[in-house]
Design goal:
The complex is a heterodimer of chains A (311) and B (397).
Chain A: E1 2-11, E2 14-24, E3 29-33, H1 40-47, E4 55-60, E5 63-64, H2 70-76, E6 77-81, H3 92-96, H4 98-102, H5 107-120, H6 125-128, H7 138-149, E7 156-160, H8 168-185, E8 188-193, H9 196-202, E9 205-210, E10 213-218, H10 220-225, H11 230-236, H12 241-247, E11 265-266, H13 271-281, E12 285-290, E13 293-299, H14 300-307
Parallel strand pairs in A: 3-8, 3-9, 6-7, 7-8, 11-12
Antiparallel strand pairs in A: 1-2, 1-4, 4-5, 9-10, 12-13
Chain B: H1 3-10, H2 20-34, E1 38-41, E2 49-51, H3 53-56, H4 59-77, H5 82-107, E3 116-119, H6 121-141, H7 145-165, H8 172-179, H9 181-215, H10 217-232, H11 235-252, H12 266-290, H13 294-302, H14 307-337, H15 350-358, H16 362-390
Antiparallel strand pairs in B: 1-2, 1-3
The chains are: A alpha/beta (311), B mainly alpha (397).
Membrane topology (chain B): Multi-pass membrane protein
Protein name (chain B): ABC transporter permease
Family (chain B): Belongs to the binding-protein-dependent transport system permease family.
Chain lengths: 311, 397
């Protein structure tokens, strides 16, 4: 658990982060959203002491981080940034081994861990371990960046706009990978982004920041249904609200009995995808398939009800 | 031009077109062919008699050399493949080197130990023209660093072979060498010690100063400005300025004289060369460290590297090619500058240059100048190759 308690950061008179209090539950993803200059990155960088707060406290699992030496704290927390920040003169394997080496792991243990992580991120160790970062594609570099952040199995992972430099297709893939890895390891993730779509897709909770203040911190459905301020509403985009709401739930949770013919949709798809398919194909309902079996239907009428503002 | 003419033009082979640099090389070579190939003098200080290409060699070798030169010019002039140009350039240079030695033996009367034969303006121009062809071809071929070093080694070996075979023994520069062989090697050692020693000390001191300037921003402008001012002091003036303080140190600090410190000699020369070396090394260290990707530094911090670990594992390795470029600049500069050390009794190849000027014996000047130029050139090639080898992964896109 990360407890941010009344944190303020000022730089020569300008308040960048203004009395923010926020608790991040263990094993969840908390996405901090805001425009540039909102103080979201500064807030995140105070968690691993890359920025020292002017006042206030941050506790990790109850321990005030002010008493932990910065380098020791940082070795316990994964850190992945936009533009990956890989060391250009070191191979992929050496990059991933950075923190294990700092922690003094023995060679065998480090090599095994590098192999395990590269495999996990679908980078064949035999092929990629000895390559230099510039020989990789943007998506591969980003995966190595996250693998490096996870090398010493940290409980907490901080990510600063990790997908900012990726094209939409690779970004969607990277987001799915992150969700899978979070479920596998139960890592607590704090991710900073300016993209509300990304926040709704990834976040268990979303913290919206503007001009240094924390405006709202809630579950995605709550933020969409009841934005705390006009700014939060604007960030969500009023015309996007019903679709964002639909994107939060899966078809599997809203299957109705009934037999319809035609091209089925997978039960794992989001309601938003089902809604788009209904509109596009001009059908009032779609068959739902799961493991190749038709298990029911999903109807336009039901989805329209679900897309309406929750009462 | 009619359509038929252009149609004809396109069927021409690719090599049948003028190469722009080739035209320049041909013009220089033409001037070189007209000017005297060798100079004959009855003794080492009288004015020489110019000997043209036709007079400097017996008729058959003379015709052969002219033929080789013509083929070389044609290959340079037309758009032949670059490798052909490189081969032609090296072949002509080799021919020039061999025939200048032959010319010296041919022009020197039998048994005459006072007569001197030295290369004439024509020889130097021809050498320059085809050296241009070779360097241009080498640049265009973009050889890997190790291959460039291998070519350098091969050239050195070829020159060593020519020296060892004795075919140049009749040349005036080697006659000057023959009478002062022990002094030549002694001054050579001094020259290397001055040039490499000053660069080594400047590296050991300059890199930490550069790191300090990078870490402590307020220090940067001050230190770099002071070093800039040092750099603008004329070299002879700096040598002179150091005489008084070093003489005082030698006279007043016990033990200073024993380690070789004195007002004149090698000590002030070394100090002056060291002072000139500092700016390029310090500023390149600062620039190199500044050019390290901020994302890499942020990642290093964020993963828990201490300041020292960051410096040695990330910042210095990434800045190293730029620092090495600074060392290369300084080494080539100091190999040249060390000739001036002779003025204040510091020794080095400059001794021959200044003796030669004093005696109006140009051959003696060459005995000092040629090895200096060769050393500087070799140092430049080797360090350029090292810079490229160390920038693995960091500079390429």
């Amino acid at each position: 658990m990360i407890e941010i308690d009344d944190i303020t950061k000022t730089y020569t008179g300008t308040t960048v982060v203004d009395r923010v209090t926020l608790t991040i539950q263990p094993h969840t993803i908390c996405v901090i959203v805001g425009t540039s200059g909102s103080g979201k990155t500064t807030l995140m960088r105070m968690i691993n002491k890359l920025v020292e707060p002017t006042s206030g406290h941050i506790r990790i699992d109850g321990e005030d981080i002010a008493g932990i030496p910065a380098y020791e704290l940082r070795r316990r927390i994964g850190y992945a940034i936009q533009g990956h920040g890989l060391f250009p003169h070191r191979t992929v394997g050496q990059n991933v081994a950075t923190v294990p080496k700092l922690l003094g792991w023995d060679k065998k243990k480090t090599a095994d861990r590098v192999e395990e992580l590269l495999t996990l991120f679908q980078l064949d160790p035999a092929e990629f371990r000895d390559r230099l970062p510039h020989e990789l594609s943007g998506g591969q570099q980003q995966r190595v960046g996250v693998a490096r952040a996870l090398a010493a199995s940290p409980n907490i992972l901080l990510m600063d706009e990790p997908y900012g430099a990726l094209d939409p297709v690779i970004r969607a893939k990277a987001q799915e990978d992150l969700l899978a890895i979070q479920r596998k390891f139960g890592t607590t993730i704090v991710l900073v982004t300016h993209d509300m779509e990304e926040a709704i897709h990834l976040g268990d909770t979303i913290a919206v920041m503007d001009k240094g203040k924390l405006l709202q911190c809630a579950r995605p459905a709550e933020i969409i249904a009841n934005p705390a301020t006009p700014f939060v509403a604007e960030l969500i985009g009023t015309s996007e609200r019903p679709f964002r709401l639909l994107s939060l739930a899966k078809v599997a949770d809203h299957i109705e009995p009934g037999e319809v013919t035609g091209e089925p949709i997978e039960a794992t798809a989001s309601l938003r995808e089902a809604y788009a398919e209904l509109l596009w194909s001009g059908r009032p309902s779609l068959p739902v398939s799961s493991d190749g079996q038709i298990v029911g239907q999903v109807t336009l009428a039901a989805l329209s009800r679900l897309a309406a503002r929750p009462q | 031009m009619s359509i038929a003419d252009t149609a004809h033009a396109t069927t021409r082979p690719a090599w049948l077109a003028l190469d722009k640099l080739g035209v320049l090389i041909a013009l220089i070579a033409a001037a070189g062919a007209i000017l005297p190939f060798a100079l004959f003098r009855a003794n080492r200080i009288v004015v020489g008699k110019p000997k043209s290409l036709l007079e400097a060699l017996p008729s058959f070798p003379s015709g052969l050399l002219i033929g080789i030169l013509l083929v070389g010019v044609v290959i340079a002039l037309l758009r032949f493949p670059v490798t052909a140009k490189l081969a032609a350039g090296f072949a002509v240079l080799a021919a020039l080197m061999i025939f200048i030695g032959q010319s010296a033996s041919y022009l020197t009367p039998e048994g005459d130990t006072f007569a001197r034969v030295s290369p004439g303006a024509g020889f130097w121009l021809l050498l320059f023209a085809f050296a241009l062809l070779v360097t241009d071809a080498l640049t265009r071929l973009r050889f890997k660093p190790l291959i460039r070093i291998a070519i350098l080694v091969a050239v050195i070996a070829a020159i060593a072979l020519l020296l060892w075979s004795g075919s140049w023994n009749s040349l005036s520069i080697l006659k000057e060498y023959a009478t002062r062989a022990p002094a030549f090697w002694a001054e050579g050692r001094t020259h290397l010690a001055l040039a490499f020693g000053s660069v080594a000390i400047a590296t050991v001191i300059g890199i930490p100063v550069g790191i300090l300037c990078y870490r402590v921003k307020p220090l940067r402008a001050g230190v770099l400005n002071v070093l800039n001012i040092v750099q603008t002091i004329p070299s002879i003036a700096l040598f002179g300025l150091l005489i008084a303080p070093l003489a005082w140190v030698a006279a007043n600090i016990p033990g200073a004289r024993d380690i070789g410190i004195s007002g004149i000699g090698a000590a002030p020369a070394l100090v002056a060369l060291f002072a000139y070396s500092l700016l390029p090394i310090v500023s390149n260290t600062v620039v190199g460290l500044q050019s390290v990707s901020p994302a890499a530094i942020d990642a290093a911090k964020g993963m828990g590297m201490t300041g020292r670990q960051r410096l040695f594992a990330v910042e210095l390795p990434l800045a190293f090619p730029v620092i090495l470029t600074g060392i290369r600049i300084v080494l080539v500069q100091n190999i040249g500058l060390a000739t001036i050390a002779a003025l204040i009794g510091g020794g080095g190849f400059g001794v021959f240059v200044f003796q030669g000027i004093g005696q109006t014996a140009m051959d003696l000047v060459l005995l000092g100048a040629v090895p200096t130029v060769a050393l500087a050139f070799a140092a430049a090639v080797v360090l350029d190759a090292l810079v490229e080898l160390t920038s693995r992964g960091s500079r390429r896109p």
